[in-house]
């Protein structure tokens, strides 16, 4: 149970592995831009976006719409008309990031903060998603579907050797400050599925997660629900979440839409993402982009 990351950036640190991204990493990432094409890597959000059964779905309400003028006779001062709306949704929905207060064990969060500092009345007093700065760094795509020549079936384990082989095939080497994106094919396989199962999926195991952490990557993302393989190894419960988020301060980016990046056949690119700075939140939907 390594805590080596806790001492790297001081006793008060709440940014975790994002600290690996400095001016050098940002400048290097900018040199990867060749065509200037910008790709959105996020799922569309709507009331139809699937969520696990323990979460509510997205709800979208119109507070003012065209009907208020056509039917209700709303005033039009100076000819001005407008529409506005409200969205209610879980913060862990679609393409989203897990903040460092999202998962822990032994009643202790990343960097030694206490689990009981997260309360319904105060939200997360430490490590909330608002402490996560905007991310601009090198993105690295490890395409396990391309490596194996098939979409990975539910429950298939992605191990260290798989990550190494995918990196070698792509001609990239995950390193300090990188955003490592993993393609398993899970999200692609869910297209058109009426009832999405969140109980089983391909993903990395604990050892693969630690291999990435020990390479000082800043964030790990995947095109699946939990980044890690489901079901877990016997005797384990979300081991990748425990080790990466709690021990190494590495946020997890889940539900990536990698189709545009795969079509572009780019494995190294400028990556950008910013969470909604909701104070005390355990995560946030976001819309990451790759600039080619």
Write a structural description.
The chain is an alpha/beta fold and 292 residues long. The chain is 19% helix and 20% strand. It has eight helices and 15 strands. The strands form four sheets. Strands 1-15-13-7-9-11-12-4-14 form a nine-stranded mixed β-sheet. Strands 2-3 form a two-stranded antiparallel ribbon. A two-stranded antiparallel ribbon has the order 5-6. Helix 6 packs parallel to helix 7. The longest helix is centred in the middle third of the chain and has 11 residues, at 160-170. It starts with 22 loop residues before the first helix and ends with a strand. The relative contact order is 0.23.
Short summary:
This protein is α/β, with parallel strands linked by helices. 19% of the residues lie in helices and 20% in strands.
List keywords for this structure.
292 residues, alpha/beta, 9-stranded mixed beta sheet, two-stranded antiparallel sheet
Question: What sort of overall outline do the alpha carbons produce when their principal axes are compared?
Answer: globular
Distance between the termini: 38 Å
Proportion of strand residues? 15-25%
The topology string of helices and strands comes to HEEHEEEEEHEHEHEHEHEHEEE
Main beta-sheet annotation? 9 strands, mixed
As a percent range, the share of helical residues equals 10-25%
- Could you tell me the number of beta strands? 15
Rg measurement, Å: 20 Å
Mean pLDDT: 95
- The unreliable regions are none
Q: Which structural class fits the helix and strand makeup?
A: alpha/beta
Annotation field: number of helices: 8
Q: Order of strands in the sheet with the most strands?
A: 1-15-13-7-9-11-12-4-14
């Amino acid at each position: 149970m390594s805590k080596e990351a806790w001492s790297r950036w001081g006793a008060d640190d709440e940014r975790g592995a994002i600290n690996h991204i400095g001016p050098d990493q940002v400048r290097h990432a900018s040199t990867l831009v060749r065509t200037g094409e910008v790709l959105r890597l996020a799922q569309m959000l709507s009331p139809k976006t699937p969520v696990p059964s323990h979460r509510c779905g997205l709800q979208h309400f119109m507070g003012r719409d065209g009907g208020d003028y056509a039917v209700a006779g709303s005033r039009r001062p100076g000819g001005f008309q407008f529409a506005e709306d409200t969205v209610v949704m879980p913060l862990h929905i679609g393409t989203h990031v897990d903040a460092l207060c999202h998962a822990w064990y032994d009643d202790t969060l990343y960097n030694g903060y206490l689990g009981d500092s997260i309360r319904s009345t105060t939200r997360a007093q430490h490590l909330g998603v608002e402490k996560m700065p905007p991310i601009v760094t090198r993105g690295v795509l490890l395409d396990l579907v391309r490596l194996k020549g098939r979409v990975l079936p539910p429950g298939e384990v992605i191990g260290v050797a798989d990550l190494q082989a995918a990196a070698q095939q792509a001609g990239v080497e995950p390193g300090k400050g990188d955003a490592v994106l993993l393609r398993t094919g899970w999200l692609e396989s869910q297209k058109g599925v009426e009832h999405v199962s969140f109980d089983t999926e391909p993903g990395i195991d604990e050892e693969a997660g630690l291999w990435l952490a020990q390479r000082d990557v800043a964030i790990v993302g995947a095109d699946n629900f939990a980044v890690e393989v489901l079901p877990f190894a016997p005797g384990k419960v979300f081991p990748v979440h425990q080790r990466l988020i709690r021990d190494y301060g590495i946020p997890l980016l889940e539900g990536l839409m990698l189709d545009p990046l795969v079509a572009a056949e780019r494995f190294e690119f400028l990556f950008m993402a910013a969470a909604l700075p909701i104070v005390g939140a355990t995560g946030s939907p976001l819309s990451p982009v790759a600039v080619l």
